[in-house]
Each structure stands twice: as C-alpha cells, then as structure tokens.
Amino acid sequence: MSQNATPVLTIDGPSGVGKGIIARIVAQKQNWNLLDSGAIYRAFALVVDTRKVEIYDEEALKEVAQTLDLEFKTKAGDELVSVYLDGKDVSKILRTEKTGEMASKIASIGVVRSALLKRQKDFAKMPGLVADGRDMGTTVFPDAPFKVYLTASADERANRRLKQLQTQGSKGIILQILAKVKARDERDSSRKHSPLKPAKDALIIDTTELSIDEVVTQVIALIEA
Ligand code: DC
User: Fold this and answer.
1) What is the tens place of the pLDDT at every residue in 4-24?
2) pTM above 0.90?
3) How far is the CA of 110 from the centre of ligand 1 (A)?
4) Which residue's CA lies nearest to atom 20 of ligand 1?
5) How many contiguous H segments (helices) and E segments (strands) does the chain have?
6) 18 C-beta closer than 6 A to ligand 1
7) What is the tally of structural domains in the chain?
8) Measured in angstroms, how far is the CA atom of residue 134 from the centroid of ligand 1?
9) Range of 56's domain?
C-alpha cells in the first residue's frame, strides 16, 4: 500500500455536495496535501475529447493516462485548486458541466480507472492527505484511518449549483440542473467499476441542513478524536 504511514482523510460523495470546498478547508487547516480526484478524471476526459481518442481503444486510453501532464497549484485566497494541463491553466473549462458529464462517462471504463490509480495513490505524502472523490475510501485508499461520506438531497445540491453559477455571473434553470444532478448520481452509482458508495467504515454526514463551517467542524473532530 503506497500510502504507508501517511494519515489520509477520504471525502467521498455525489456531485455538488461540497466535497471540494470542504476538502480544501480541512487540508488548509491541517496543513495536509490535497487530492481532487475528480479534476484528474475531468482532465483525462478533456484530453480524450481534444485528441479524439476512441473510448473503446484501451491502448490509446492507457497512453493518455500515462502521459497526462497535470499539475495542481494552491493559490492563497482561492476557494479551489488551480489545475494545469500541459502547462496551461485549465481550471475554468475543467469545472464546466460539460466536462463533468464527459468525466462521469469516461470514469465508468475499468481500464481508465486502473490506469489512473497509481497517480492518485502517489498523492499520499507526509504530513497527510485529504482526498476527495467517489471511491477514495473504497478503492484508492481503503486503509485510510479517516473516512467521510457527504450526502445532501438532490434538490439542495441543484440549488447550491445554481447559486454557484449565479456568483460566476452565469444563469441556470433549476429543473435542468436537477435533472443533470440526478443523471450523474445514477451513472456514478450504478457503474460496475468502483461505483459511488460509502465505505463501510465511513462517517456519513448529511449536509442538507448544514453550513460549510458545520461540516468542517465535524470532519476535523473525526481527525482529532
Ligand atoms: O467530483 P467531480 O464532479 O469533479 O467528478 C467528475 C466526474 O468524475 C464524476 O461525475 C465521476 C468521476 N469521478 C470518479 O469516477 N471517481 C472519482 N474518484 C472522482 C470523480
């Protein structure tokens, strides 16, 4: 197990539940490293799309995984980590709904998941790691000492997404957002390889009625207990 003695906190859950912001705050407070595994799948999807790689071409998919030139930079004051692909800041395009959809589709392919596994495990470095995604606690870091699974109703997650779009100056239609949230939940949870589900030993936190601070407090309490 590559994570050896490094303490790892896994944060899994469906899209729009707030994993990214919670992971970022907890990592900052603990001074731990951060893995946004969704960003890896999103960047992978972006490259596959740009290079017009056929999704049934397993060798080509493996090649993309091996040559994926990704760098994460944490800038003070920014809510989320900046992501560089081939030296270019792709954070904005990476976080669009379209890229999320593409990532969700490509992430269901077994060969893609196994080709990206080591890259994710390598993030486990001292003094610790906060890893956010869908299968952090079940597949990537099954021996992690701290596991959290965040949930929230689909309505609440769609509302949060709408507010996020509005603060970015974009518009959205709540019913369309809700339909997308539900479709992504269904795809991520029903896939054969590493489906979205809580690890048996995860602390499940329903965030529907909780503020970000309240969730952070519960997560930090778990680490400190
Ligand atoms: O967390 P996110 O929205 O950035 O993730 C985008 C998609 O990537 C998500 O819908 C499914 C996939 N993903 C995954 O399959 N496993 C992960 N650990 C993280 C993301």
Assistant:
1) 689 999 999 999 899 999 999
2) yes
3) 14
4) 38
5) 9, 8
6) no
7) 1
8) 6
9) 3-207
